[in-house]
Amino acid sequence: MFEKRKFLVCFCVICLFCVPKTQAQSLVEANKLFAAKDYAAAGKMYYQLYQFDKSVEAYTLYTAALMKAKKPDLAAAEAVKPLIQQAERAARMLSRCEDIQIIDSVIADKADFLNAYLMGHESGSLAANGGEATAYVNSLHDKRFYAQATEEGAYRIFSEIKLQDQWTERKKLNLGADSLENNNYPFVLPDGLTVYFAATGNNSIGGYDLFLTRYNLNNDTYLAPNQLGMPFNSLANDYMMAIDELHNIGYFATDRFQPAGKVVVYTFIPNKEFAAVENDTAMLVQRAKITSIRDSWRPETDYPQYIADRQRAIFQEKTVTQKDFSFVINDSRVYNSLNDFQNGAARQAFLKAQELEKEQAKLASDLEQLRLGYAQASVSEKKQLHPDILSKEQKLEELAQKYGEAVKQVRNLELKK
Fold it and tell me: How far apart are CA 259 and CA 263, in angstroms?
């Protein structure tokens, strides 16, 4: 699929599915509604036009009119508050619209849009997980994050680790479910701490919005999610942020400007540091909406070549034959596959040794996180962490000894054969 994908020189999806009226014409109509004191209709129209400050103003005046009426409508005035808060959030997001280079766009069926995500091995893998849910598995294939519908019908994100070829230790990610209706579309950076996901709920400016959170090493929880700015988020559904740090390429999906059942997957170059779009109102709205990807291009970059280079590198990486492992039997024999073992008992002993190695690696990782937390902890917290650190250090020594004995047994059994 990807070899045949064409680079779109001037992609402008808004022209395909937008209403006949231009932004300027619609703005004139909204201004007329405002002048006629039809503040509710004007507020809604301003919001759709990305005129969020004017939307706040119109809704505020509408609330005041409701309260000044001969018979104040308290319920209606209360119902307008979420619209004002939503417009205020959108205005803040517009003001911090990020200056990213969107280098490609592919329209896909929503049912299989993940096929448009081309990433290297180090970034892990994405897959559908039933319904609209997706799953992410890390590059070591020993940890996964996935969304799943609960009994209440809302999506939640869970994590699991693989031990002895079994997925265990299922945990629900605490992502502030009190303000988020659905949590879905997880992706984790190679650091294992940074999680991108999409959510609907009170903080959304329209359907699914993209969020970022980080794992808190000190208390085994996740930090309060940060809502991404524009152009990643819009008044439509925006989801499935994924970034290949090694190849410096990122993706996100959205159904803005798309008919039912279709999404557009944007490919972009991630910024090393945040850079905002210059605050020119007309250009800011265009960049936030992504009316044309050409608006984000820079003259010194050959984007077709940029994409081709990364596609080539990723495809070469995926086609290289991967060794399952590298295990030294003696000075003249190194095994790279279970099929290399001639002794069945040695093969089984090696599998047990691998399990010990995974357990040892996980414990070492947990211990390292505890030590990092200890360095930043208060005096009272250090007293609580100290016994756990000592216990894990002792267990790690025991595991290292067991692993060494297991490896020796593997070699002895195989050499007997």
Answer: 8
3-state secondary structure 93-127: HHHCCECCEEEEEEEEEHHHHHHHCCCCHHHCEEE
Closest CA to 327 of 309, 340, 311, 342: 340
The two three-digit tokens of residue 337, written as one number: 């596959």
> What is the percent of the chain where pLDDT is above 90?
54
Task: State residue 344's pLDDT score.
Answer: 83
Cα 104 from Cα 61, distance rounded (Å): 42
Phi-psi region of 28 (alpha: psi -120 to 50; beta: other; left: phi over 0): alpha
Radius of gyration of the chain measured on its C-alpha atoms: 27
Burial label, 175 (beta-carbon count in 10 A; 0-12, 13-18, 19+): buried
Higher pLDDT, 178 or 416: 416
Indicate if the pLDDT at residue 319 is higher than 80.
Answer: no
Q: What is the pLDDT of residues 242-289, one digit of tens each?
A: 999 999 999 999 999 999 999 999 999 999 999 999 877 778 999 999
φ/ψ bin of 322: left (φ > 0), alpha (ψ from -120 to 50), beta (otherwise) = beta
With cut-offs at 50, 70 and 90, classify the pLDDT of residue 176: low
Rounded distance, CA 156 to CA 146, Å?
Answer: 8
221-222 vs 226-227, strand pairing mode: unpaired
Q: Provide the sign of the torsion angle of the four alpha carbons 264, 269, 271, 276, taken in this order.
A: negative
DSSP state of 138: -
Q: Is the dihedral of CA 336, 337, 339, 341 positive or negative?
A: positive
Q: How far apart are CA 389 and CA 248, in angstroms?
A: 37
User: Residue 196 has what pLDDT?
Assistant: 97
Distance CA 136, CA 398 (A): 33
Please tell me the distance from the alpha carbon of residue 389 to that of residue 220, in angstroms, as a whole number: 15
User: To which residue do tokens 């390292």 refer?
Assistant: 368
Is 229 in a helix, a strand, or coil?
coil
pLDDT value of position 3: 37
The model's pTM is 0.71
Are the beta carbons of 44 and 82 closer than 8 angstroms?
Answer: no
Residue closest to 410 by CA, chosen among 358, 360, 342, 361? 342
- Edge-first strand listing for the sheet containing 262-269: 101-109, 262-269, 249-254, 238-244
